[in-house]
Write a structure and sequence with these properties.
Blueprint (H helix, E strand, L loop, with lengths): L4 E6 L2 H9 L8 E4 L6 E4 L1 H5 L8 H11 L2 E4 L2 H16 L5 E5 L2 E5 L8 H15 L4 E6 L2 H13 L6 E3 L5 H9 L10 H10 L5 H5 L3 H7 L2 H10 L9 H16 L45
Parallel strand pairs: 2-4, 7-8
Antiparallel strand pairs: 1-6, 1-7, 2-3, 5-6
Helix pairs in contact: 10-11
The structure holds magnesium ion (MG).
Length: 302
């Protein structure tokens, strides 16, 4: 019997957190900017559709933003950490084994939940988070973490799944047909650097990588990539991503436990805002400040 590992991931996390407290932002193109309003670190689907790239600097983006009315928010990490804690707390109730992977993602081990249809269970998780915290999540389920990540990707990109994709519930042919449509760079741990090298070897899709010869991959790349192929074939290599997990977790723990202090001034001029650090950019038209009165903003001075 294969393992059933679920990956629960909040969609466009920072943007979705802002929308919980300002529902008028629903359906509008928006981005959340990094510290000091440097670059876009979260994008709504509408902003993605307009071609806003992850990490794109605001100074490059603001012309596109002005043209399309993209709304930009300064980041509010105290709010995001609080929302994350609420989500993780709720998810803890769905399985005795939880691994928090990042601020908006966690794995749940659902192996042996024989009385549940796991797709229905995923839908229940989804509606609970939406109802209790107001955030949209997608659930991907697979025999390994790598497969759970891919299932989550499929659930997110294909509305017919209703936000939940269980790869264990598909036939081998059905699942392979999905993998054939996904570029190899989408696999957890492959990224932009390895993808071109794999492409050059004729490995274009996730299915190509799944079927690749493990010993060739091991000798040309690394044992980590070999383990990824095993994970794609359903063998759970729980230690393979340990290093990565620890790193991400450390970053996340900093966020969770940090004393955030007063919010940093952002570089945007607005009559209600704290003194601006930068003098630049007449971005007032595009950037709306968060309403000052909601409870998570008590850290702001003034
Ligand atoms: Mg996410």
């Amino acid at each position: 019997m294969p393992r059933s590992i679920a990956l629960i991931d909040v969609n466009n996390f920072y943007v979705s957190c802002e929308r919980v407290f300002n529902p008028s932002l629903e359906g509008k193109p928006m981005v959340v900017l990094s510290n000091n309003d440097g670059c876009a670190i979260a994008r709504s689907n509408e902003a993605k559709a307009l071609g806003v790239k992850m990490g794109e600097p605001w100074f490059k983006l603001k012309y596109l933003a002005r043209r399309h009315g993209i709304i930009a928010y300064s980041s509010n990490y105290a709010l995001y950490a609080d929302m994350s804690n609420r989500v993780m707390e709720i998810l803890r109730g769905f399985s005795p084994q939880q691994e928090v992977y990042s601020i908006d993602e966690c794995f749940l081990d659902l192996t042996g939940f024989a009385r549940h249809d796991l797709t229905d269970y995923g839908l229940e998780i989804r509606s609970r988070i939406k109802q209790w915290v107001g955030l949209p999540v997608c659930v991907g389920i697979g025999a390994s973490k790598t497969l759970a990540k891919l299932a989550n990707h499929i659930a997110k990109k294909n509305p017919e799944f209703n936000g939940v994709c269980d790869s264990n519930a598909m036939t081998e042919q059905e699942w392979n047909a999905w993998l054939a449509r996904i570029e190899v760079g989408e696999v957890w741990g492959i990224g932009r650097k390895l993808a071109p090298q794999l492409n050059a070897m004729g490995i274009q899709s996730v299915l190509d990588l799944k079927r690749a010869d493990t010993s060739t991959i091991r000798s040309r790349f690394s044992v980590v990539l070999e383990k990824t192929i095993r994970e794609l074939n359903g063998t759970s290599a729980s230690t393979s991503k340990k290093r990565h997990l620890q790193t991400t977790d450390r970053e996340f723990q900093k966020l969770r436990h940090a004393d955030h202090g007063p919010a940093k001034p952002c570089g945007i001029r607005h009559p209600l805002h704290e003194p601006c650090r930068r003098e630049a950019a007449p971005t007032t038209v595009l950037c709306r400040l968060r309403p000052r009165l909601h409870p998570y903003q008590s850290v702001q001075t003034g």
